[in-house]
Write a structure and sequence with these properties.
285 residues, alpha+beta, Jelly Rolls, 7-stranded mixed β-sheet, 4-stranded antiparallel β-sheet, 6 helices, 23% strand, globular, binds 2-oxoglutaric acid
C-alpha cells in the first residue's frame, strides 16, 4: 500500500500520551536537511540584502510578508501533527523568528507562553522549526517536563537587554532547573510545545547561529479576551466562529501591500504584548 503523508504525520497514540504527560514532543523530522537549508537560505538572502540579521518588526508575524514563511505555516505535514492535538479547524495566531548569533548573549528567560497572549483557553500549540541545528552549545530550548499541568503562574517583567522576549518576562516559581529536558534538534526537525509549559534557553556559545521559526496554532473556537482586535490565518478546515479577523496571505515577499498589512496587524499584536507596560515596542533588536 502506498503511504500518504497522512499515514506518517498524524501522531500515534503513544506520542499523544507523551505530549499530554510532558507538555512537549521532540524531535520530529518534518523537513529534510536539504529542505531546511533551502528555508534558511531564504532568510539569509533577505538578511544579506538588508545588510544585517533579521530584525524587528519582521521577526514577529513574518508569515505576512514572506511567501516562504506563509507556505511553511501551511505545510501539510505540520498541519497533520497539529491536527492530531488541536483538531481539524486550525488558525495560525502568530509566528516568530528566534535567532541567536554566536556570542551575542541573547537568551530567553523561563516563562509560560500563555502569560500575555490573552487567549481564552490554553489549547495553543507551538511548532518550533529548527532552521539550523539547535544544541546545548548554541542555545537549544529547555523545558520543565509536565509543567503545563500547572495553572497560569505569576511572572515578573525584567525588560533585560538581551532577553528575546518582549517584556523579558520570567516565571516566579521554584523548580529544579537541573531536571529540565533539552530540546536538541537537527536542521529540519521540529518540536511541539504546550502554551503553559515552562521553558527557556541560554545564550549561544557555539560556532553557528541558532535559527528557529515558531508557529503558534489555535483551534478556531479559541478567542482573544484582552479587548484588542486580533488577527489569525486560517490554515486548515473552516472557521465558524470568526473570533479573529482573517489575515491576508502574501502574494509576493515584501510587496507594498504585504508590508502595509504586516504593519497594521503586527501593531495590534504589539499592543497586546506591551499592554499595561507604558513602553513602546523595541524595533531596534
Ligand atoms: O527559541 C527559544 O529559545 C525560545 C522560544 C520560545 O520561547 C517559544 O517558541 O515559545
Amino acid at each position: 500500500m502506498v503511504k500518504t503523508h497522512l499515514d506518517i504525520y498524524h501522531l500515534r497514540h503513544s506520542q499523544l500520551s507523551q505530549y499530554e504527560r510532558d507538555g512537549f514532543l521532540s524531535p520530529i523530522r518534518v523537513f529534510s536537511e536539504q529542505e531546511a537549508k533551502a528555508l534558511r537560505l531564504q532568510l539569509e538572502i533577505y538578511e544579506a540584502a538588508h545588510g544585517s540579521v533579521m530584525k524587528s518588526p519582521y521577526r514577529n508575524k513574518p508569515h505576512l510578508v514572506f511567501k516562504w514563511v506563509a507556505e511553511t505555516i501551511r505545510n501539510p505535514k505540520i498541519l497533520d501533527l497539529v491536527e492530531s492535538i488541536l483538531g481539524p479547524n486550525l488558525l495560525v495566531w502568530g509566528t516568530n523568528f528566534f535567532i541567536k548569533e554566536p556570542g551575542d548573549n541573547t537568551f530567553i528567560s523561563w516563562h509560560q507562553d500563555s502569560t500575555y497572549w490573552g487567549l481564552s483557553r490554553p489549547d495553543v500549540l507551538t511548532v518550533w522549526i529548527a532552521l539550523s541545528p539547535s544544541r546545548r552549545s548554541n542555545g537549544a530550548m529547555k523545558m520543565i517536563r509536565g509543567s503545563h499541568h500547572l495553572d497560569q503562574l505569576p511572572h515578573i517583567d525584567t525588560f533585560q537587554e538581551n532577553n528575546l522576549l518582549t517584556r523579558g518576562q520570567k516565571v516566579e516559581f521554584e523548580f529544579a532547573e537541573e531536571n529540565a529536558a533539552w530540546i536538541e534538534l537537527e536542521a529540519g526537525e521540529v518540536s511541539l510545545h504546550h502554551v503553559r509549559i515552562i521553558h527557556g534557553s541560554e545564550p549561544n556559545v557555539g560556532a553557528d547561529r541558532r535559527v528557529g521559526l515558531a508557529i503558534r496554532f489555535v483551534p478556531t473556537d479559541v478567542s482573544q479576551v484582552n479587548g484588542i482586535k486580533d488577527y489569525a490565518t486560517l490554515v486548515r478546515g473552516r472557521d465558524d466562529y470568526r473570533h479573529f479577523q482573517h489575515e491576508p496571505s502574501p502574494e509576493q515577499s515584501l510587496g507594498t501591500a504585504e508590508k502595509n498589512a504586516h504593519t497594521r496587524i503586527a501593531d495590534e499584536s504589539f499592543k497586546l504584548f506591551y499592554q499595561g507596560t507604558g513602553r513602546e515596542p523595541k524595533f531596534s533588536d
